[in-house]
Design goal:
This protein is an alpha+beta fold. Among the domains are: 81-156, Dna Ligase, domain 1 (2-Layer Sandwich), CATH 3.30.1490; 227-290, 2-Layer Sandwich (Nucleotidyltransferase, domain 5), CATH 3.30.420. It contains 11 helices and 18 strands. Helix 4 crosses helix 9 (352-367) and helix 5 (227-237) crosses helix 6. It starts with a strand and ends with a helix.
């Protein structure tokens, strides 16, 4: 069982999920408006803490127990990925413990003590005779070498976040860049063999990263996001920013080709007047700004790699709007994957980062043969205990039994 947290500039998301037979079931989720956070960075600690506590209280209320440990989706900040190598001696065959030891040894020898590791991914292991393996467990050798992709930041940057969680009554068990979660949530086995880009269009920023065979190589943050659309709508129609947000999310389309010329919505502008807004016209405003964002993304991808990418994964709340896939066709003639989060309880791409991080950490623990659970056994029993529905005679009884369990 896992709890994953995403601190966004517009909202804070928390997802609690349980893995059963390689499937992830959502036990609780929440999305609350965030304050004090701008472009993923803490600008006002008191406001950010208040927002985080609200989200935590929502989750605790839904679960009936208090969460204590979390996974944290770190913003793409000053990404610097290096390739490090290390080696240890082995007795007989390779075990999960040996994998953990060679990784620890490599990090200890190559990473400065004033830095904190945010991302660490084995690229390849090497055994006797230069034999290479992605997963060496069970193979016999006298030595085990590894090449790692490692990203670090100064500890002082991370401490602001850790203190925020601590004051909210939480401890961070593990973390990595949120865009790694985005990749994990959408990547397929075929994608894991290729070079491509992952893009998260957020509220006040857009993150772009290059992945090769599942390894994140480079990344950058663009100071532009869906917030620009709210400002455009607010300026053109002279409406409050909250009204603009509602129009964007519940009325406009990403492309005027998907809009209705005869559909109007009445709102009150800043002068207190009732005005009609046409769906076709407001969709033109949205499309113009999104085209600018997508062009900026394409330019940044070309800056990050001079190699030709074969796919692009795009996520973020804006991708839920109708007509979004159409906008990508004009800029990218490669495979386009738009995040599609389907588990009951989080059927929106805004939760994709949280669920993806859960899957990433779970895979990492399995690979290293670590038995990991973020909840105590007694808490898990409370959360998963259900009455025997088979004893109910009809559908209504079964529903009542479920709702009161």
């Amino acid at each position: 069982m896992y709890t994953s947290v995403d601190l966004g500039s517009s909202s804070i998301k928390i997802v609690v999920s349980r893995k059963v037979d390689d499937k992830y079931y959502v036990l609780a989720s929440t999305c609350v408006k965030s304050r004090g956070i701008k472009r993923g960075l803490i600008k006002d600690k008191e406001l950010a803490l208040e927002s985080l506590k609200t989200a935590v209280n929502n989750i605790n209320k839904d679960l009936g127990i208090e969460i204590e440990k979390v996974l944290f989706n770190f913003p793409l900040y000053n990404l610097n990925t290096t390739i490090e190598s290390g080696e240890i001696e082995i007795e007989n065959s390779v075990r999960g413990e040996d994998i953990r030891n060679v990784i620890k040894s490599t990090v200890k020898e190559n990473i400065s003590s004033n830095l904190e590791i945010i991302y660490l991914e084995p690229i390849v292991f090497e055994l006797d005779g230069g034999v290479q393996a992605i997963d060496p467990k069970g193979l016999e050798t006298t030595s085990l070498k590894v090449r790692l992709a490692v990203s670090t930041i100064e500890k002082s940057v991370l401490y602001d976040y850790l203190e925020l969680f601590q004051e909210a009554g939480l401890s961070v068990d593990d973390l990595t860049y949120g865009i790694v979660g985005d990749y994990t949530e959408s990547a397929t086995r075929e994608i894991n063999k290729r070079l491509g880009a992952v893009v998260n269009i957020g509220y006040s920023k857009t993150e772009v990263a290059i992945f090769n065979k599942g390894i994140m190589l480079k990344g950058e943050t663009l100071p532009i996001g869906s917030r620009k659309i709210d400002k455009d709508i607010s300026y053109i129609y002279k409406v409050d920013r909250d009204v603009a947000l509602n129009l964007k999310e519940n009325f406009a389309s990403c492309s005027f080709n998907y809009a209705d010329k005869y559909d109007d919505m009445e709102v009150t502008n800043l002068a207190g007047e009732r005005i009609k807004i046409n769906q076709f016209e407001i969709s033109q405003v949205v499309e113009a700004r999104l085209q600018e964002i997508i062009k900026s993304v394409k330019l940044e991808v070309n800056n990050l790699t001079n190699r030709e990418i074969s796919y692009i994964i795009i996520t973020g709340g804006i991708t839920n709007m109708s007509g979004f896939p159409y906008l990508l066709d004009s800029e990218f003639d490669i495979e386009k994957i738009i995040s599609n989060v389907t588990p009951i309880g989080i059927r929106s791409s805004i939760y994709g980062t949280c669920l993806g991080l859960t899957k990433y950490i779970d895979k990492k623990m399995i690979f290293r043969e670590i038995d990991y659970n973020m909840f105590q056994e007694s808490d898990e029993e409370k959360l998963t205990e259900k009455k025997d529905l088979a004893r109910s005679d009809n559908l209504i009884q079964k529903l009542e039994s479920y709702l009161h369990s």
